[in-house]
Amino acid sequence: MASVFMRIFNLICMMLLIGHWSGCLQFLVPMLQGFPSNSWVAINELQEAYWLEQYSWALFKAMSHMLCIGYGRFPPQSLTDMWLTMLSMISGATCYALFLGHATNLIQSLDSSRRQYRERVKQVEEYMAYRKLPRDMRQRITEYFEHRYQGKFFDEECILGELSEKLREDVINYNCRSLVASVPFFANADSNFVSDVVTKLRYEVFQPGDIIIKEGTIGSKMYFIQEGIVDIVMANGEVATSLSDGSYFGEICLLTNARRVASVRAETYCNLFSLSVDHFNAVLDQYPLMRKTMETVAAERLNKIGKNPNIMAQKDEPDGNHDSNTISAVVNALAAEAENHNNSYSDDDSESPQKMNSDMNLAELNQSLRMSLPRPKSGEFLKLFEGNSP
C-alpha cells in the first residue's frame, strides 16, 4: 500500500514540476523581450513587483492553461503569448491524460483480487442468464460464491505450485493451523503425519441442506470440518448424531473398502477439507499406528449408529477366502494329475510319444491356470502348497 501511494505522490510531484517549468517560461519570454506593453506582465503591472508575486501570477497563468480552465486574468495579447498558451495547454492535456491513466491503473492494482472476483461473478451471472437457470438456483450459486471467496478471488493452486516444496508445505501448514488446532485427532498425532495429511487436503464449501455423503455409495474421500455443523442421517431419515468444528467423517468406507453406511447432510454453511482415498492410503501406509487409531474410532462410530463394528476386522475377508479356496482347488488338481502321471509311466523308462504329449498337456494346463486365476499372496500360496503337496 505504501509503495502504491508513493507512486501516486511521485506522479503528482512530476505534474507540479512541469507546471513550475511552464510558469517560469511564461515569465521568462516577456522578460527577454523587455516586457512589451501588450505582455501579460505589463498589463498586470508586475515589472517591479516582488519576485514571489511575479512567480505566483506566472504559476497561476501556467496552471490555468494546463488544466484548460482559462487563460488567467487576461487572454493572450500577442503572437508570442498565444504560442506560449498553446504550449502550456498541450503539456497540461498530456499530463492530465497520463495522470488519469496512471491513477486508474494504480487504483485497480490496489485490490486486484477483488476485481478478479467481480469479473468472475459477472461471468457466472452471464452464464446463468444464458442457460436460463431458475431464480432459486441462481440465488444459491450467488450465495455460494459470496461464502466461498468472501469477495476476493485467488488462483491458490497456481500460486502454491510456483513455490518450492518446503515453502509450499510451510504455507499450507500455516493456512490450516486453525484446522489442526481444532481437530483432536491431529493434536495428539505425530507432526510429520499431520504435515503429510495437511499438504494433501482440498478446501470445499457446502451450503445448508447439501448431501455431502450419500448412504450406499462408494466413498472416494473423507472430510475434516473446519467450520460448520453436519448431521449423520440414517436410511429411515433419523439423525443419529451431529458433528461440528474439529470433527471428521467418511473414513469408515476408506478403511473397509465398503459402501457408505450413512448419509451426511450439511446443517449450516460448512467449510471442509477433503482427503482423497489415494492420498488417504498413501499416508496411512507410512503410519500404521494412525491407521489403527482411525479403525478404533470408526468401530466406535459404527456401534453408535447401530452398525456391526466387526466389519473393521473383516475387511476383504470374503475375497481372500474365495481366492484361497480357488488356489487350494487348483493345487489339488495339479497334485492329482501329477500322481496319475507318475503311476501311468513309472514302468516305462523310454521316452514314448504319449508320455511327451502328456507332459506337454500338463505344462499347458498349469500355465493356463496360472494366467486365468488371480495371483495370491506369496505367503498364502506357500501355506496352501505345503498343505497339498504329495
Automatic annotation (TrEMBL):
* Pfam families the UniProt entry points to: cNMP_binding, Ion_trans
**Ranges that cross the membrane:** 12-35
According to the lineage, what is the superkingdom? Answer: Eukaryota
Ranges of compositional bias, category Polar residues: 353-370
Domain Cyclic nucleotide-binding: from-to ranges? 185-301
Presence of the UniProt keyword Transmembrane in the record: yes
Q: Which keywords belong to this entry? A: Ion transport, Membrane, Transmembrane, Transmembrane helix, Transport
Primary localization class, coarse: membrane
MF annotations from Gene Ontology: voltage-gated potassium channel activity
What membrane topology was assigned to this protein in its record? Multi-pass membrane protein
Gene Ontology CC annotations of this record:
HCN channel complex
Where is this protein found?
Answer: Membrane
List this protein's GO terms for biological process.
Answer: regulation of membrane depolarization; sodium ion transmembrane transport
Q: Where is this region: Disordered?
A: 341-390
Keyword Transport on entry: yes
Query: What InterPro entries does this protein map onto?
Result: cNMP-bd_CS, cNMP-bd_dom, cNMP-bd_dom_sf, Ion_trans_dom, K/Na_HCN_channel, RmlC-like_jellyroll
Q: What is the protein name stated in its UniProt record?
A: Cyclic nucleotide-binding domain-containing protein
Q: Which organism is it from?
A: Chironomus riparius
